[in-house]
Amino acid sequence: MRFLTEIRESRSASTGERLRAALTGHKVVVLRRASHADSDAFYQKLAGEIGDFHFRDEDPVTGGLDHAGWLDIRYDATLAATAQYRYGNGRMPLHVDGAYSDVAFDVFFLCCETPARFGGATFAVDDALVTDYLAACDPALLRSLREVNVRFTKGERTVTRRVIEYDGAGPVLNWSSTRVAPDNPAPVIDMCARFAGFCEQRLVDGGLVTPIPLMAGDAVFMHNRRVLHGRYAFWGERCLLKGVLSLTARVGGETLL
Questions:
Q1: Fold held by 2-125+211-247
Q2: 23-45: per-residue pLDDT in tens?
Q3: Are 155 and 63 in contact (CB under 8 A)?
Q4: Which of 9, 118, 165, 207 is the most exposed place for a label (fewest CB within 10 A)?
Q5: Rounded alpha-carbon distances, angstroms, from residue 10 to 18, 110, 118, 130, 213
Q6: DSSP state for residue 91 in the 8-state scheme
Q7: Rounded CA gap, 234 and 77, in Å?
């Protein structure tokens, strides 16, 4: 699969069919809309057309999925202390969604309700670039990430798995530096700290991530475990709505779970 492509909403062709086709060959697909009118209904319908849409909000503390609805990622100074990355305005480290969850989904998407006045672009990096860079600069760390299990946790939810695995389509990532359980063995904590430093210093600060600025109505769809993504710091109001879905057909030669 190639890394990224961009499509535009079209009145003359099915946007759902074009999006599904784009996701067949690309890990990241940006959808541009001419208008942000009715974004809520538009994206609910679109997600249902291309897969099984998991329309569930997540409790920001427990990680529970008890309520239907969008997961909003917005700036709210009164909530940022308890959910720094969901409601804060600082930089969000590279990660995959749901590193601590056993809920299987293939693709997540972020649709923009309100872009920040300054900054705040989502950014992403290809999993192949991550592993190629590690193989060149720190093969011992790459080997550990492929062999050592890590426990990730959020509230009541926990998953234990390796950070980097492989399937027939390439690397499969499971990573979130903020969800590494503190009771992992000391060598595991050290390994994760080294990888977190690599992600933020070598990849983000090194200019190897791709910024994906979104305007109101736009969205980005990503194969969750085929890329790492994060967010730049920002100023001003900002709101994105997140959804996840399972694809109902094989994509890129593999059904991604």
A1: Double-stranded beta-helix (3.60.130)
A2: 999 999 999 998 888 898 999 99
A3: yes
A4: 207
A5: 9, 19, 29, 34, 20
A6: P
A7: 13
